[in-house]
Amino acid sequence: xxxxxxxxxxxxxxxxxxxxxxxxxxxxxxxxxxxxxxxxxxxxxxxxxxxxxxxxxxxxxxxxxxxxxxxxxxxxxxxxxxxxxxxxxxxxxxxxxxxxxxxxxxxxxxxxxxxxxxxxxxxxxxxxxxxxxxxxxxxxxxxxxxxxxxxxxxxxxxxxxxxxxxxxxxxxxxxxxxxxxxxxxxxxxxxxxxxxxxxxxxxxxxxxxxxxxxxxxxxxxxxxxxxxxxxxxxxxxxxxxxxxxxxxxxxxxxxxxxxxxxxxxxxxxxxxxxxxxxxxxxxxxxxxxxxxxxxxxxxxxxxxxxxxxxxxxxxxxxxxxxxx
Length: 324
Known about the structure:
By secondary structure, the protein is an alpha+beta fold. It folds into two domains: 4-38 and 148-318, 2-Layer Sandwich (D-amino Acid Aminotransferase, Chain A, domain 1); 57-142, Dna Ligase, domain 1 (2-Layer Sandwich), CATH 3.30.1490. Helix content is 31%, strand content 23%. The chain has helices at residues 4-12, 18-29, 36-39, 41-50, 71-75, 115-127, 233-247, 277-281, 285-299, 308-318; strands spanning 58-62, 81-85, 95-101, 104-107, 112-113, 139-142, 161-167, 170-178, 194-198, 205-210, 213-215, 251-259, 263-270. The strands form two sheets. A seven-stranded antiparallel β-sheet has the order 11-10-9-8-7-12-13. The protein has a six-stranded antiparallel β-sheet with strand order 1-6-2-3-4-5, sandwiched between helices. A hairpin with a 2-residue loop joins strand 7 (161-167) and strand 8.
């Protein structure tokens, strides 16, 4: 339990706690009937593609046990791919295949699997063991993202991603998530990945956190994680902002990736994004959200006339890191 003095100090810095997040942001801005748009990755992908937004290419979907028999034919044109549950969370159930060897499939960790192994994994996905609430699920087979070389010195295997928190279309905070050996190549903070704050104005990283500890270097590469310029930063911000119109959800975590050939892509969306991003940025989310709410109150009733480009420009000016 936090002492009163500590709680007041965090409150004064605009630090957001989970109860306040749920009450003041999630419940206030996210209508319950819209949750499937982000909780189901297949729906998210289909809506994004229909809107012309870049996402990893969809190779196929397996939604029934009978459909598993077609898996071999579905995979035949692809040397590498990703299998994931449509309703999974935290990276659970995601299987990354990097290449093939003698009729077997090599995972990102180097393990060789047979087609029977892949079919068994998909059967497990369909049963719902990886899904939110344990409900029946479907398996998505999609393009395997190849990370841009900019991440080679500060990431261990896997695919780094960028999480941007968006309030009513205004990007309020961003974080780069870097896989480590401990996270087994996954960009999941709870499994040991690194969270690195990003200056919204420039796209330059500003310092990292690992297991809630402030760090300056990647534990596996020993290279500095701050001072890295993320390419295509304006495009990342625009894509995140546009996800407000895409879903109608007012408080949203947008996860994006940078592919070496195809550039920025939307990976998935989250209606209940975590709070570690505040540690990575050494800044409070609630303070920034209040600033956006005040800006919207001043602009009312002409809120819907504010384009993503204008929202991004306002946030880049308002939330810039001043000591860079």
